[in-house]
Structures are given as C-alpha cells and as structure tokens.
Design a protein that fits this description.
about 290 residues, about 20% strand, alpha+beta, 4-stranded antiparallel sheet, two-stranded parallel sheet, 7 helices, disordered C terminus
C-alpha cells in the first residue's frame, strides 16, 4: 500500500463523511464504505481504511451489466477498465430508476436563484449604497456648515472685541486731548505765552534730535525729554535753549544710551526756567505734563 496515496484517500473520504453529516443531519448515519474496484491488488486497502476511519470498509468488484457486448465488456476488465471507473461513478448521479436504498447526496454548494431575485437584491444593494452616500454627504455638509458658523461666530466676537478696544483707545485719546486743552487753557489764564514758547522750543531743537515729552508746571519749570543720535546734538539743543530769551538756567539733567531696534540712541532730559518766574522751591501748585 502506498501510504501517501492511501492517506490522501482517507482524508477525502473523511471530508465527504463530515460534509454528509453536516449538510444532512436528519439522514441515516453512514455505517459502511464500499470501495468499488476490479484491481485485485487493492483488496488490502479495506483493512487499512477501516483502521484509519474507524468504520466498516468493504472492497467490491463493480459488476458488468448483463447484455453488454463482448468488446465493451473486455474494455471494462482490469487493468484497462480502471480508467472508466470514475466516469461510471459520475454517470450514476443521473441514473434513472436508482433504488432509494442506494445512498446519494448532491454536492452542489449553491442553490438555484431566480434572476428576478438577483436583480432585486442588486437594486436593493444599489439603493442602500445610494442612501448611505447621501447620508454621508449630508453629514459632511452639516459638519461644514457647523464649522463655518463657528468660524463666523468667532470672527464676530473678535471684531466686537477689537471694536471695543478701539472705542476705549479713542475715548482715552479724547480724554487726553481734553486734559491737554484744560492744561493749555489754565496756562493761558496764568499768563504763559504757550504758543510762542513751543515755537521757541521747536526752533531750539537740533536737527539730529527729537522730543518725546514736554512738561511745563505752574512754577514755570520747563522739562524736555527726547532722543538724539549723538552727544553733539544734545549740546547744541541745550545751548540754543540757553540763548533763547524766554528761558534761563538751562541744564542737562541726564542722558543715557538706549537700544531702539537695530540702532542706538541717546535719551536725554533738559530742564529750564521761564524768564520772569520763580523756581520750584517757591511754588505750592502741582505740576502738569502734556
């Protein structure tokens, strides 16, 4: 016995038995396997399969139909007749008048389905796919609209915040202008020629210097804060103010180098006294800056 070939045969027989039990659970239990062959050397296969499958196995020679012609009968004899054995077994599937006692089962995996049923299933599948696609599109559109609405709401809140900041900034500027106007009005009432003083200060400032703050208190003390590119511009500014007839006791109070972006500037502070006024020591009023 070829163990490899016999093992393959046993495996296929076991698979057939398992399929029969699974697909036809109400059918009669298979209790015997008949191996049909006219090869006398295959008789030993019955015992081998019986041990392997744990079921009764019998080897039987396939009968030759009575009335078969001599020429055909000779072709069915061993060993040449073995090649027709598989065809004979397959032909028994459609053999009319086969006794019901002969067990047989259909190995067809799929049942016959009507074409209308297939078309209906396809139509249902297409409809379901289209519905899912429309639902997904609707979800995407809803998410997009929600995101756009949130973005617009965020923009509105941002614009309102910016508008509130600008309104506050404008109000602060208006308040500063009102304070300056009040200060200017108070200085004019006290007799300070403010426009001429500012013209004199602007004329005295060197071209390489600039003012950032001008202060004038009620005692007539003038305080100038500015920036210059070099020390020479500060000196010229102080000398020009000292030579102006409106100011006396002009002095350079402080200066220091500061970084302004990529350049360095000199920040300075110059103070002077208006001619005809007393110094800060004799004044009881509070200072005002603008």
């Amino acid at each position: 016995i070829n163990n490899a070939a016999a093992g393959n045969l046993a495996t296929e027989l076991q698979r057939s038995l398992d399929y029969y039990r699974r697909e036809f659970p109400q059918a009669t239990t298979v209790s015997r396997i008949i191996v049909s062959t006219n090869d006398p050397e295959a008789s030993a296969i019955a015992g081998w399969l019986k041990e392997a499958l744990r079921i009764d196995v019998t080897v039987a020679e396939p009968p030759i139909s009575i009335g078969t012609g001599r020429a055909i009968a000779s072709q069915l004899e061993a060993p040449g007749g073995l090649r027709f054995l598989a065809a004979s077994g397959l032909a028994m599937q459609g053999l009319p008048g086969l006794p019901s006692s002969v067990p047989s089962f259909d190995l067809t995996v799929r049942d016959f389905v009507d074409a209308n049923v297939i078309a209906a299933r396809r139509k249902f599948t297409f409809s379901l796919a289209a519905s899912l696609a429309l639902m997904l599109i609707g979800v995407v559109i809803a998410l997009t609209m929600s995101r756009n609405a949130n973005a617009l709401e965020h923009q509105v809140v941002t614009r309102r915040t910016e508008l509130g900041g600008k309104e506050l900034e404008n109000q602060q500027r208006i308040n500063a202008l009102e304070v300056q106007q009040n200060q200017l009005r108070a200085l004019r009432l006290e007799g300070f020629p403010f426009p001429r003083l500012m013209d004199a200060v602007a004329t005295a400032i060197d071209q390489e210097a600039g003012l950032t703050e001008v202060g004038l208190d009620r005692s007539g003390r003038l305080m100038l804060t500015g920036e210059a590119s070099n020390e020479k511009a500060i000196i010229k500014t102080r000398e020009a103010l000292n030579m102006c007839p409106y100011f006396v006791n002009t002095s350079l109070d402080s200066f220091e180098w500061v970084n302004s972006g990529a350049t360095r500037l000199l920040r300075f502070q110059i103070s002077s006294q208006l001619a005809g006024t007393r110094g800060p020591a004799a004044v009881n009023g509070s200072g005002q800056s603008f």
